[in-house]
Amino acid sequence: MRRMVRIVLTACLAAALAGGAGLPIGKTQGAMGAQSMVSPDVIAKLSTARLATAMYATDLARAKADGYTIITPMIPNMGYHFLNPKIQGFDVAKPPILVYVRKGDAWQLVAIEWVWPKKPDVPPLRGATYGSFDAACHYTDGSFLPSGMEAMCAKKHPQTGAAFAFWHPPLVTLHVWAWYPNPSGIFGEFNPLLTPFNNE
Fold it and tell me: Which residues contact 39 (CB under 8 A, 6 or more apart)?
């Protein structure tokens, strides 16, 4: 049964990513604009990622029970970020960050993410492109404030009153839109299709 699930997920992922054999991510045959192709080895790795994170696809409570905690509010065209601080390094089956959107009480996983203090010398996924996140103080309710130094982080967020959780220096980010289509590409930092979720 598990093998059948993997086969189905791989086939669905390949179709969702490629939109047809040899097509760029998020593009149709008539679309204009440059997009990088997703290689077969990346499709195989992302099928592993989807299988590993399927339990979280619509079950935020399970993600929280497994150690993921909110670290951002809804970032427009990106989502709410939940971090598991126990996960270190790059493992395609264990993303340290899950990215969700919501409508009312319903939460949906849209992307998975990894972060580094500097751009990896070798891309962990072929064709990967990167985003960034400025140095910031993070608070327990998911709010954050830009700050170049941890010493400048207030013990409580001045607007929300939430307690300080952690600080991080500038980061390089790798979003993978494994659970939601993105016309900007599977590695795009932002996703214009998430606009309907921005005011939730």
Answer: 126, 127
